[in-house]
Specification:
Layout: E1 27-31, E2 34-37, E3 42-45, H1 48-51, H2 60-72, H3 84-94, E4 103-107, H4 110-127, E5 135-139, H5 148-153, H6 157-160, E6 170-173, H7 177-180, H8 183-186, H9 192-206, E7 211-216, H10 232-242, E8 246-250, H11 264-268, E9 274-277, E10 289-293, H12 295-302, H13 305-310, H14 321-337, H15 356-365, E11 373-379, E12 382-387, H16 396-407, E13 410-411, E14 413-415, E15 418-421, H17 429-444
Bound molecules: 4'-deoxy-4'-aminopyridoxal-5'-phosphate.
Residues 109-111, 114, 143-145, 217, 221-222, 250, 252-253, 278 line the site of 4'-deoxy-4'-aminopyridoxal-5'-phosphate.
Enzyme class: transferase
GO molecular function: adenosylmethionine-8-amino-7-oxononanoate transaminase activity; beta-alanine:pyruvate transaminase activity; pyridoxal phosphate binding
Cofactor: pyridoxal 5'-phosphate
Length: 447
């Protein structure tokens, strides 16, 4: 007997919604913008899976590339060996970013990319003869995956409270959200400076000569699409430069076109020392992550062979041939269809299929004023609708919205009382209309 009920099945996906004792919703196939459910319904994917299927589902080039690669070279070790597609992919990836962001380390997930970046940061200072720099600073409300380093620097207290001290020497800066709420959509003036000063406060508190790196999501995704005010990330960069601290952008969500630019670093005009990515790199097909590293870091490791030997790091599946093939075909698809800039604000004629960011913004903001809606935020092709929590039952209202939207044929995601949207970047205006019309019906009808 195969049970598909979350509560008594043999599969143990911890994140299943035990809280609400729900039967799982089974997806059996997917094409372009739509999933098909086990009961034969079409559901519009308003979340690109888990923020990852940026080019849309079942794209032929990507499917064919994976199948071809599986027949040609199924596996090659990345220790003492390699294969041509790993080199090709690394060079294609770095061409998306300005120099000196010139090197790529391959992982299998966002969590692994984060662990890798944190280890590189600590090792970098040692290699430079600066072994006293051991502290890592994250940000409240930051999400950096579920491994030990990621939950340590992550700013979600409930994710780390069962695991004792975790990484030592970690601290967190305050999040900008409450002051910065909706700053982007209101075109708010530049009050990033005073918020960023919190970083300097924390750095000085610990003594700058002990601080190795700061990691932030440029736009916090999983905690509800929290967009920084203008100037904030620039100021973080300046403080890091002043104290010889590496700045890491976690672009696992914001990378690969999500903000209407290839990366958030393009959107905000701030270059970090490392960028972590995953998800959209292989369009959610074969698992892959990557850390982009500036040349100065790469070169520091290369100046003495002993450094490379001391820095032992790598995964059995780093640069897996299937993942590399999937990622190359994904990059082709992005390029051919202009997807990395599809979410930009409209520069041309409305309805030309480009610059969907404007259409997205206008459509989402029609939901302002609907029952329980206390905020609507957007950037690129990301959206958030924040609901007032139900007294005594936080998260219930948003979860009900999720269930009702799914019934009505749109997949949304919720985090706390925030509905998060991140559709595949191949969507068209009528898909946006469908998402917003469904949400309008759902919101009218919430407890
Ligand atoms: N960092 C960020 C910003 C993320 O959003 C996520 C996943 N949502 C991760 C890291 C972890 O990625 P993964 O689930 O692939 O390990």
């Amino acid at each position: 007997r195969i049970s598909t009920n979350n509560l008594d099945s043999f599969w143990m996906p911890f994140t299943a919604n035990r809280q609400f004792k729900q039967e799982p919703r089974l997806l059996v196939s997917a094409k372009d913008m739509y999933y098909t459910t086990s009961d034969g319904r079409k559901v519009l994917d308003g979340t690109a899976g888990l923020w990852c299927v940026n080019a849309g589902h079942g794209r032929p080039k990507i499917v064919e590339a994976i199948a071809r690669q599986a027949g040609e070279l199924d596996y090659a070790p990345a220790f003492q060996m390699g294969h041509p597609k790993a080199f090709e992919l690394a060079s294609r990836l770095v061409s998306l970013l300005p120099s000196p962001m010139d090197h790529v380390f391959f992982t299998n997930s966002g969590s692994e990319a984060v662990e890798t970046a944190l280890k590189i940061a600590l090792a970098y200072h040692r290699v430079k003869g600066n072994g006293s720099k051991f502290r890592l600073i994250g940000r409240e409300r930051g999400y950096h995956g579920v491994n030990f380093g990621g939950i340590s620097v992550g700013g979600i207290v409930t994710n780390r409270k069962m695991f004792g001290t975790l990484l030592t020497g970690v601290d967190h800066i305050r999040h900008t959200h409450d002051l910065a709420r909706n700053a982007f959509t209101r075109g708010e003036p530049e009050y990033g400076e005073e918020l960023a000063d919190d970083l300097e406060r924390v750095v000085l508190l610990h003594d700058p000569s002990t601080v190795a790196a700061v990691i932030v999501e440029p736009v916090a995704g999983s905690t509800g699409v929290l967009i920084p005010p203008k100037g904030y990330l620039q100021k973080l960069r300046a403080i890091c430069d002043k104290h010889d601290i590496l700045l890491i952008f976690d672009e696992v969500i914001t990378g690969f076109g999500r903000l209407g630019t290839p990366f958030a670093t393009d959107y905000f005009g701030v270059m970090p020392d490392m960028i972590t990515t995953a998800k959209g790199i292989s369009n959610g097909t074969v698992p892959m992550g990557a850390v982009f590293v500036q040349s100065k870091i790469h070169d520091a490791f290369m100046t003495g062979p002993e450094h490379l030997i001391e820095f032992f790091h790598g995964y059995t599946y780093s640069a897996h041939p299937l993942a590399c093939a999937a990622a190359l075909a994904t990059l082709d698809t992005y390029a051919e269809e202009g997807l990395l800039t599809a979410g930009a604000m409209d520069k041309d004629e409305p309805g030309d299929g480009k610059g969907l960011g404007t259409y997205w913004q206008t459509a989402l903001h029609t939901l302002r004023g609907m029952p329980h809606v206390i905020d609507v935020r957007n950037i690129g092709l990301v959206g958030a609708i924040e609901l007032a929590p139900m007294p005594g039952e936080p998260t219930k209202r948003a979860f009900t919205a999720f269930l009702k939207a799914y019934e009505k044929g749109v997949l949304i995601r919720t985090t706390g009382d925030i509905i998060a949207l991140s559709p595949p970047l191949m969507l068209q205006e009528h898909h946006i209309d469908e998402i917003v019309a469904t949400l309008a019906m759902v919101l009218k009808d919430l407890p």
